[in-house]
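Q: What structure does this chain adopt?
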Amino acid sequence: MSDDVERVGAERKPSRRRRVEGGRQHRHVVRVTPEEEAQLLRLALRYRVSVPKLLVDSALAGGSEAAAESATTRAALLTELFGVHRLLANIANNVNQIAKAANSTGDMPTQTPEVLAAVRRVAERIDALVDRLSS
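A:
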């Protein structure tokens, strides 16, 4: 594991499991050796999740590797979605400026084709993200 991955994991607090309506009504106590605890903590830190979330996701996803892959994929998709959201906000601002200029002068600004091309690129990125989420 690279130092960059360890540093990133150390900077962010592990995520907790989401709350569910009515709470979680069942509880399981698992006793582990100090070595197992160290390994669980290392994995939880690596994937930025709590130990209970790691254990539940691992068991329900078919093992720790599958759960880790799922968590990594979710994190990557969230990062991508935030980036697309930021781009979309910038493009919306540009479209508003174009509309304002067109309404006041009756002429289309020269940057209109570039802004429309950016809209198409962002739409394609959103389509690709939807495809990744559905697979």
